[in-house]
Structure prediction request, 339 residues.
Amino acid sequence: MPNITEHENLRPFNTFGIEVFCDYFTELNAISEFSELTKNEIYLNNNRLIIGGGSNILFTKDFNGLVIKNNLKGKEILAEDDQEVVVKIGAGESWHGFVMWCIDKGFCGVENLSLIPGCVGASPMQNIGAYGIEIKEVFEELDAYDMKEGNKRVFKKEECHFGYRESVFKREYKDQFLIASVSFRLKKKAQLNVSYGAISDELKAAGIKDPGIKDVSEAVIRIRKSKLPDPAETGNAGSFFKNPEVPAEKFTALKKDFSQLVAYALPNGNYKLAAGWLIEQCGLKGHEHNGAAVHTRQALVLVNKNNCTGKDVYELSGYVLQKVFDKFGVTLEREVNII
Ligand code: FAD
Ligand code: EPU
Prediction:
């Protein structure tokens, strides 16, 4: 029988550090426990929410239902040759722990994604990305279980419809599958991507001319530590908004009025705007609302500065949205999952 507790405080289970309660709470340590759970009355009669590290969730109220903390572990090599290796990783493994394991073994492909908080199982949810890489580039397939019947389904890359911070699991299959493990195809010979300006600058500053995967990982870790707040010290969920995509005409019009606009051309002819820049230009860095605040070093990040509620963070995000729209006519979209 799964151990289900009642009225659990979710503060330790979300990196915003928001105090909310759920009616029921359980932890999944083996996939066999999931088939038992799907027959349980509490599971059958309640809303359900799966969580990993809680680093991309904002709880705005108590959760009426059952929270399932995914702890499924395991690292397995499925196939390898001289060039490549396919590894299968349990959804409850720490993402950064997995990256460090790859670096230790000399497996290349995820080093740019060092220090992203959370668990492996959530990585396909929004196709996590940083410093020029998204997981879709190394993703092979995943094992999921249907939340209704508990049946297993394998998702290949094409079926996941990965996009910028997007996948089927955030859209048409939202809350329908438990992701149990994810398989990645990695290179054995380093093929580094140091095109992201900040990485090449960091490597240059460290005097590294011929970097390996460990050097890239360490550079990324240094950059991230210099601007992103550590959730162990200040509650946050990383970027609160996505970087918005606008048509070329809108970009040209904005560039005329704001010559310093930070934007990147996309292959489809549109432009991606740096939302952090837009927010900073509205004078919102450090802006506070009831203990929720815009981070002072990275305006795209909202923080729990002083024991705020999820509602406070949400209201602050609404204020930021409005200010950016008023100044630039651009609508930001929240990236964090609002519960
Ligand atoms: P959770 O927050 O627990 O869950 C996120 C969503 O996935 C929820 O909807 C949840 O229901 C669902 N979910 C979780 N596990 C499963 C599962 N096993 N099966 C089905 N559904 C599941 N993200 C980036 O992409 N790039 C970054 O650079 C980045 N930097 C960050 C920096 C900081 C300081 C912080 C706090 C966050 C950052 N993030 C970043 C966001 C976050 O770390 C990632 O989105 C991460 O993948 C979330 O993992 P998690 O286990 O914490 O997911
Ligand atoms: N910028 C500002 N002011 C700010 C923040 C940013 O002017 O307050 C400008 C910077 O000058 C820089 C540009 O915006 O030129 C981009 O900034 P940065 O490199 O910090 O990246 P970002 O676009 O703000 C994105 C991701 C991050 C990811 C980094 C690195 C999104 C929503 N965010 O942030 O992901 O780590 O790039 O690749 O795409 C996350 O998803 O939680 C996350 C942290």
Remarks:
- Residues 130-131, 198, 227, 238-239, 242-243, 262, 274, 276-277, 280, 298-300, 335 surround EPU (ligand 2) (CB under 6 Å).
- The chain has a mean pLDDT of 97.
